[in-house]
Amino acid sequence: MTSIVHAKGLEKSFGRFRALKGVDLDIPRGAISGLIGPNGAGKTTTLKALIGLCDVQGELEVAGQDPRRARHKLMEEVCFIADVGILPRWLRVNQLLDYVAAVHPRFDRGRAEQFLASTDIPPNKRIKELSKGMITQLHLAVVMAIDVRLLVLDEPTLGLDIVYRKEFYDRLLNDFYDGDRTIIISTHQVEEIEALLSHLVFINKGEIVLNTQMSELEIRYSELIVQSDKMAEAEALGPIYQRKTLGKHCLTFEDVPREKLQPLGEVITPSVADLFVAKMRQDRVLGEAAATGEAGHE
Amino acid sequence: MNNFSVRQFAMLLKRELLEHTTLFFYAPVILAALIFLFTAWVLHMLPGDELAIAIEYVAVAFDGLSPRDMAPLFMSLSIPFTLVFSICAVVYLLSTLYQDRKDSSVLFWHSMPVSDLRTVLSKLVALIVVAPLFYIAVLFVLYLLGIGWMTLLGFNYDIAVAGLAYLLMAALLSLLLVYCSMVISGLWLFPTVGWLLLFSAFARRAPLMWAVGVFMLLLFLEDFVFGSQFLANWIESRSNPGQYIVFDIADLLPRLFNYDMLFGIAVGSILVGGAVVMRRFTD
Amino acid sequence: MMEQVRALLLKNRYSVLVTTITAYVLVVVIEGAVTGREARVIDLDNPYFELNIQDFEEFRDRRERE
């Protein structure tokens, strides 16, 4: 499979703050990839860099182009929806359609109108008069009517209620995704998109901490609900994370064969949310270890 | 230039006009309404025989003049319009690359396949070429009202003001001259246009303060450090309205194609180019 | 080398501003020094038509005398 996104050693600083510290990222064509990380981890910066909305240092190729050189060319192949309503608030709904129709060579106006007809959005209203959910619906309607190869979504459903969120992802999967297009979604509401992802990327403090296929996830990661008498044995295998739910100990393992775990209790595949917490925790522990290690040298 | 690219540019122009209806449309309409009301009030206060004398005076003054000679007189009515237009132009230039960064809609505009150069060019064309059309359209309505009213009064007092057709032709000719003057001033002041655009694209807040502040600083620095006043001279050499008001169609080409005009456009393009590059930084 | 200079000049908003203004001021100052620029004002007088209040006052007086 060829990559639609290829990034190597992306760096970005805002003043003294290093938002990206050498991000390497490869996303194959046709993937639905989740970019997941805590607030301030560099999700938005990474996504903006991919579509040329933010200058970064490093090697970067998206849909065969360098987004820093030919943003407008790239935008014929790529679309973007952001967390905050970025649609111009003074424009009317039908003026927005007029605009995109005239400006975007791959926009199918009829299709956008068809999508809008199934919503409550009045075509004559100004965008500032619409609710946040409607603005997102509108943006999605516009984007889905554009025949692009890559769709970048930055926290697209932030601040929406559950009905809108569910509908948003249903639409995306049923009406946009065709197996050939690529979608990159950043969010911290992991549970909601877990089922649709084919790839998973964790980012923390400007670094990629995990980049894997979902199908590989169950091979590399396992969660052991340990029998209380086997606790010491399980801990000896080096879990990356431990938690206690309903009086049971759950241990998360990385690259430990399931055959070794099976005798110790029930083995399941961790949920993305649990794995996320585990990886973030591991990252912090490693960070602290490095810090104390440095302190020890002095 | 293929068909699509022409259509795209036309839409970019339309976009500018839709966003700035207040500056390009309501401003001249309100101004015209104010002028109309004020004139009506003055005429209402004037005693009848004074009015008759005034009209007769105009009739005598216009007597034997061709529309071409009358047109510059009509132009005097355009002065308040060009003043309001220049204020609106400054407001437009300072906000056009600033406002969309502030409300983050720049992310949407940037997610469309339109280059920054094209965007900035569309803004320049909208301001310099298209916006003056709205101003003269409103002015035309005002002229029609004026001519109609003079003719009616003329009948009333039995004074024949120069033939209606002549007056109309003079009005149209003067509109053409006003339009040309507005376009030529936009080109003549291209360095100023570029300067304002540059700071509109640069400032995170208060673009006007930046634009004026940096300029003052440069003037001050040049005077203090080098003891020369090239920048001040530059401004002075560009700030006489006589350099860009056209009173006759024959003046048009000499005003457009002279060294000073072309140099101004060239050097202003440096600033516009800076604004285009600056546009990459959306934060 | 050229790439590095380019990257430095276009690094952020401030460097773009400084680069642009420097280029602009240099061109203006050099042109000013070379041509000895002065204001070249084209005659503002309206060559075709004069209408002023004094004329009107005279006109009214004359008419009232008649």
Structural class of chain C comes to mainly alpha
Report low-confidence residues of chain C grouped into runs of 5 or more.
Answer: none
DSSP, total strands of chain C: 0
Please identify the top-level CATH class of the largest domain in chain A: Alpha Beta
Question: Separation of termini of chain A?
Answer: 49 Å
C-alpha termini separation of chain C = 88 Å
- Gross morphology of chain C is rod-shaped
Number of domains of chain C: 1
Strand line-up across the major sheet of chain A? 5-6-7-3-8-9
Oligomer: heterotrimer
What is the CATH architecture annotation of the largest domain in chain A? 3-Layer(aba) Sandwich
> By helix and strand content of chain A, what is the structural category?
alpha/beta
Low-pLDDT residue spans of chain A: none
Helix content of chain C: 55-70%
Q: Helix segment count of chain A?
A: 11
List the helices and strands of chain A in order.
EEEHEHEHHHEHEHEEHEHEEHEH
Q: What can be said about this structure in brief?
A:
The complex is a heterotrimer of chains A (298), B (283) and C (66). Chain B has 283 residues and is an all-alpha fold. Chain B has helices at 3-19, 21-45, 48-62, 67-75, 79-96, 99-102, 106-110, 116-157, 164-188, 190-202, 207-226, 230-238, 252-256, 259-278.
Ordered list of secondary-structure elements with their pairings:
The complex is a heterotrimer of chains A (298), B (283) and C (66).
Chain A lengths: L2 E12 L2 E12 L3 E5 L6 H8 L6 E6 L8 H4 L3 E4 L11 H11 L5 H9 L14 H13 L5 E5 L7 H15 L5 E6 L2 H4 L5 E6 L2 E7 H7 E6 L4 H6 L4 E5 L2 E7 L3 H4 L3 E4 L3 H26 L1
Parallel strand pairs in A: 3-7, 3-8, 5-6, 6-7
Antiparallel strand pairs in A: 1-2, 1-4, 8-9, 10-12, 10-13, 11-12
Helix pairs in contact in A: 4-5, 5-6
Chain B lengths: L2 H17 L1 H25 L2 H15 L4 H9 L3 H18 L2 H4 L3 H5 L5 H42 L6 H25 L1 H13 L4 H20 L3 H9 L13 H5 L2 H20 L5
Helix pairs in contact in B: 1-8, 2-5, 2-8, 4-9, 5-8, 5-10, 8-9, 8-14, 10-11, 10-14
Chain C lengths: L1 H8 L3 H23 L17 H13 L1
